[in-house]
Amino acid sequence: MNLLFLCTGNSCRSLISEAVFNHLAPDGWHGISAGSQPTGKLNERALALLASKGIPTEGYFSKSWDKLPVTPDIVVTVCAGAAGETCPAYLGPVLRTHWGVEDPSHVAGTEEEIDAAFEKAYAILRARIEAFLALPLDELKGESAGLKAELDRIGTQEANR
C-alpha cells in the first residue's frame, strides 16, 4: 500500500510525513511525498529535526507529483490555509484525505519560536501517522468508506503534547 503525502513545495511537511511514515510503517506500506510546485530542495530545518529524532532521510528529494515512482493508493494533503496557501488536488482514482498543518518554514521570529513551529508540525504529523498505523489496517484495506472516515477523523486531531 502506497501513501502519497502531498503539498505545494515538497520541502517540509510532506517530507516530514514521508520520513516519519516510512520510519514507523509495517512491511508492505510505503510513504512517498511530492509537490504540485516542488521547490527542488528539502528544508534544512526539517532535515535537522528528523535527524535529531533518529529518522533517516537518505535518498529523499523534492519532487513533482507528475513524476512519482509508483501510483498511490491513498493521498494525504498536508498543506494548510495560512497565507492563502492553495492545496493541490490529486485527481487520480485514489482515496483522498486532508491532514492540514501550518507550514513551519514560513514562521518568522526568534530561533526558539521557529524551532517550536517545526516541533509542533512534527508532533502533529507523527501523532496522526501513529493514529493511522494503530487502525486495523488489514480490515480496513477492503472497505474504502470506513478507511476514508478514519483518515478524515485523524486529520482533525492535534498532537497529544
TrEMBL record:
UniProt xrefs under InterPro entries: Ptyr_pPase, Ptyr_pPase_sf
The first-level EC class reads: oxidoreductase
E.C. designation(s):
1.20.4.4
Q: Does the record's keyword annotation contain Oxidoreductase?
A: yes
Q: Which UniProt keywords apply?
A: Arsenical resistance, Oxidoreductase
Q: Name one GO molecular function term.
A: arsenate reductase (thioredoxin) activity
Q: A Pfam family in this protein?
A: LMWPc
Record-annotated Phosphotyrosine protein phosphatase I domain positions: 1-135
Protein name, UniProt field: Arsenate reductase ArsC
Q: Which organism is it from?
A: Massilia aerilata
